């Protein structure tokens, strides 16, 4: 097929998380490289409202072969809300049927599905698409027992078995071109389940805006006291991020060490979570000389790195988290050591690239030991800055987008 005639579809109905950023990276790359053919991006109406900057990218580049197409209000109204496990399964089938519909009506040659996980069950049960397709498998975990210290529970063992069964069905599809994984350690185990070498590692991109505020000025702005070691917990500060365990750990620190610590909590919280956490924070501050600085608001993308630069240590005590986190990449770019969960991919990445310390993040006592190590020894001694820089380079936006479009431009399926 002539490349000028090719028609590529990106299908993503999420408006939050990584996905708007991924679409932004891909559309920008398409426009900058002046790729030929037609690119269609299928989104929901809310995406057009919340991300007008992404939708405007083609016009900014004066590119006329990229089109954002929104679901109709009727199509969106029929989508099942995410209220239960059954609702999520129904929604997965609904979205797959819409993907099939738009791929057919637009007569596309290839479809790229940023979040492939929820499209897998229909494919495993015999559904197909009228074109070749690729996607990102975000949450493989069946290989986690291969990692040091990972002992799966019965529930996790059943989940691993389910993953293998579904993957085995998906990998049989002859129209499946590439199954990308942000977890490089999952690639070989996935390929062992099928007859073709389908899985490939994919950089986990984070667009880093360089710090725009001098570190001393930023500390002054936040009210951080002098001679405090700043430990940053960033993002949606919910229970999954381990904030409860961190506060419990701080309460366990000896007073001398607590007096050296500033815990910097940055990110949005629900009102209910905010009230709950404020009570915990007040209790900790009454019982220890720690300083806790809370900045409860959404942080624009261009300002995020300021908070990583002001920190001495980045906290990533996720609770049994499956998959990757951009926190590790941002910390590596800022050359700041992390205190990470020892579980799964995050633990393995932290160990392999010597990004910092790993602990059992479900245990406040273990977290407290990690905090103490940073406070008693230099954070510089807990990481390898050369390995951190290597990790950051491997996860660039350009490498992410170029790998996807280089594969989409090839004409033959893997054998």
Brief characterization of the structure:
The chain has 19 helices and 13 strands. The protein has helices at 19-33, 45-50, 52-55, 57-60, 73-78, 85-105, 120-124, 154-170, 187-191, 215-222, 243-252, 255-258, 271-287, 304-310, 326-334, 344-352, 364-376, 385-394, 397-409, and strands spanning 7-11, 38-43, 66-70, 110-113, 132-137, 176-181, 199-201, 229-234, 261-266, 291-295, 313-316, 338-341, 356-359.
Structure characterization notes:
The protein has 415 residues and is of the alpha/beta class. The protein contains 19 helices and 13 strands. Helix 1 crosses helix 19 and helix 11 runs parallel beside helix 13. The C terminus is likely disordered.
- Oligomeric category: single chain
Distance between the termini: 20 Å
The tally of beta strands, per DSSP, is 13
Largest sheet: 7 strands, parallel
The spatial strand order of the largest sheet comes to: 3-2-1-4-5-6-7
Q: What is the C-alpha radius of gyration, as a whole number of Å? A: 23 Å
**Beta-strand percent range:** 15-25%
- Give the overall silhouette: globular
Count of helical regions: 19
**Percent helix among the residues?**
40-55%
Uncertain regions spanning at least 5 consecutive residues: 411-415
Q: What average pLDDT do the residues reach?
A: 92
- Which structural class should the secondary elements be placed in? alpha/beta
Per-chain topology:
Layout: E1 7-11, H1 19-33, E2 38-43, H2 45-50, H3 52-55, H4 57-60, E3 66-70, H5 73-78, H6 85-105, E4 110-113, H7 120-124, E5 132-137, H8 154-170, E6 176-181, H9 187-191, E7 199-201, H10 215-222, E8 229-234, H11 243-252, H12 255-258, E9 261-266, H13 271-287, E10 291-295, H14 304-310, E11 313-316, H15 326-334, E12 338-341, H16 344-352, E13 356-359, H17 364-376, H18 385-394, H19 397-409
Helix pairs in contact: 1-19, 10-14, 11-13, 11-17, 15-18
């Amino acid at each position: 097929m002539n490349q000028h005639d090719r028609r590529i579809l990106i299908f993503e109905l999420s408006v939050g998380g990584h996905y708007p950023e991924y679409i932004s990276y891909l559309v920008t790359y398409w426009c900058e490289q002046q790729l030929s053919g037609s690119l269609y991006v299928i989104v929901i109406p809310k995406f057009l409202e919340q991300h007008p900057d992404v939708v405007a990218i083609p016009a900014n580049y004066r590119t006329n072969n990229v089109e954002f197409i929104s679901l109709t209000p009727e199509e969106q109204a029929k989508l099942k809300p995410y209220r239960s496990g059954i609702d999520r399964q129904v929604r997965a089938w609904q979205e797959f049927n819409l993907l099939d519909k738009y791929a057919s009506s637009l007569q596309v040659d290839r479809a790229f599905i940023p979040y492939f996980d929820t499209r897998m069950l229909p494919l495993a049960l015999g559904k197909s698409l009228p074109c070749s397709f690729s996607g990102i498998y975000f949450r493989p975990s069946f290989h986690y027992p291969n990692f040091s210290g990972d002992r799966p529970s019965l529930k996790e063992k059943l989940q691993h078995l389910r993953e293998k069964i579904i993957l085995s069905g998906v990998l049989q599809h002859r129209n499946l071109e590439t199954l990308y994984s942000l977890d490089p350690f999952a690639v070989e185990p996935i390929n062992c389940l099928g007859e073709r070498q389908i899985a490939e590692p994919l950089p986990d991109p984070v667009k880093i805006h360089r710090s725009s505020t001098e570190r001393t000025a930023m500390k002054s702005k936040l009210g951080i006291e002098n001679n405090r070691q700043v430990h940053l917990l960033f993002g949606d500060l919910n229970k999954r991020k381990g904030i409860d365990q961190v506060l419990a750990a701080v309460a366990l620190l000896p007073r001398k060490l607590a007096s050296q610590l500033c815990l910097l909590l940055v990110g949005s919280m629900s009102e209910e979570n905010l009230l709950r956490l404020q009570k915990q924070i007040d209790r900790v501050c009454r019982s220890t000389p720690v300083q806790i600085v809370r900045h409860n608001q959404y942080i624009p993308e261009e300002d995020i790195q300021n908070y990583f630069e002001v920190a001495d240590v980045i906290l990533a005590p996720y609770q049994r988290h499956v998959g990757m986190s951009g926190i590790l990449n941002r910390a590596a770019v800022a050359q700041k050591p992390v205190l990470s969960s020892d579980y799964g991919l995050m633990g393995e990445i932290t160990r392999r690239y010597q990004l910092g310390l790993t602990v059992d993040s479900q245990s406040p006592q273990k977290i407290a030991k990690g905090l103490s190590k940073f406070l008693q020894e230099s954070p510089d001694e807990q990481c390898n800055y050369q390995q951190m820089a290597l990790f950051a380079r491997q996860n660039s936006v350009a490498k992410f987008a170029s790998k996807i479009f280089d594969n989409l431009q090839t004409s033959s399926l893997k054998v």
